[in-house]
Amino acid sequence: MKLRVLGCSGGIGGRHLRTTSFLVDGDILIDAGTGVGDLTLAELSQVDHIFITHSHLDHVTSIPFLVDTVGGMRDKPLLVHASRATIEIMKNHLFNWAIWPDFTEIPSPEAPFLRYEELEVGGSREIGGRKITALPARHTVPAVGYHLDSGAASLVFTGDTGPNDALWKIVNRIANLKFLIIETAFSNKEQKLAEVSRHLCPNTLADELKKLERSAEIYITHMKPGEIEPTMLEIEECAGSFRPRMLQNNLVLEF
Q1: Residue closest to 181 by CA, chosen among 207, 203, 205
Q2: What angle do CA 227, 217, 82 make, to 5 degrees?
Q3: CB of 145 within 8 A of CB of 159?
Q4: Which of 202, 175, 205 is nearest to 190 (CA)?
Q5: Which residue segments constitute the domains of the chain, with CATH numbers given?
Q6: Percentages helix, strand, coil for the chain, rounded to the nearest 5?
Q7: Is the pLDDT of residue 220 over 90?
Q8: How far is CA 7 from CA 10, 31, 242, in A?
Q9: What is the pLDDT of residue 14?
């Protein structure tokens, strides 16, 4: 499997700052933030599956544009995999005919451009020999992370989450773990805000990584624009022994 980073920022503000979106093997998106907009029309038309961690706008904002752009070019629906709670939020607040048309009814309910597929924590999808499993996350809305397993190796993406003991119990059982992408949305000076909003800061990141019992290449995602350098310095101070690196646009991870 190849995961290409389309966006990994906690905000926008320049050509290198795109919100969370990862392209896997050309046909799968993990989240669909603003980074999806950098794909070509041909690349967009090849996406068959979107796995959503949660309903916040920085993770779903490109889905309406994607389905509107390529729906008529495809011979099958775009499948959006998410928890029941996340699907309900998207139905009620995004594809609701007020913010955007409901593409589960266009051009007809029998042959729509978009379909939802429920995927709860612990549930998996097997797509062409690739296994994607929903992992627990702790956020302000219903949320999950994802475990991507090629058979040869695995990648874990925590999604947006605060401290999360349940995650590590599962991750520590992944024998072929190669990559861990974990968020750190705030610097230590905003630790209280991180706790309230159920995100990590360098101090809590260090506490979480101490729960990891397997070796893995660790990448940091979701840092706020304007806070990237000081946050990475704090991460080096708090968790440097784990050798975490900053996730960057266009990085390709093979596993």
Answers
A1: 205
A2: 75
A3: yes
A4: 202
A5: 2-254 (3.60.15.10)
A6: 30, 25, 45
A7: yes
A8: 9, 9, 23
A9: 86
pTM of the model: 0.97
**129-163 tens-digit pLDDT:** 999 999 999 999 999 999 999 999 999 999 999 99
Q: Is 18 helix (H, G, I), strand (E, B) or coil?
A: coil
**What H or E segment, with its residue span, contains residue 50?**
strand 49-51
For 70-88, the pLDDT digits (tens) are 999 999 999 999 999 999 9
Distance CA 16, CA 163 (A): 28
Asked if residues 88 and 55 have their Cβ atoms less than 8 Å apart, the reply is no
pLDDT value of position 4: 98
Q: Which tokens sit at 14?
A: 């320049």
Judge whether 7 and 33 are in contact, CB under 8 Å. Answer: yes
Residue 243 CB burial class (10 angstroms; 0-12, 13-18, ≥19): exposed
The DSSP bridge partners found for residue 5 are: 22
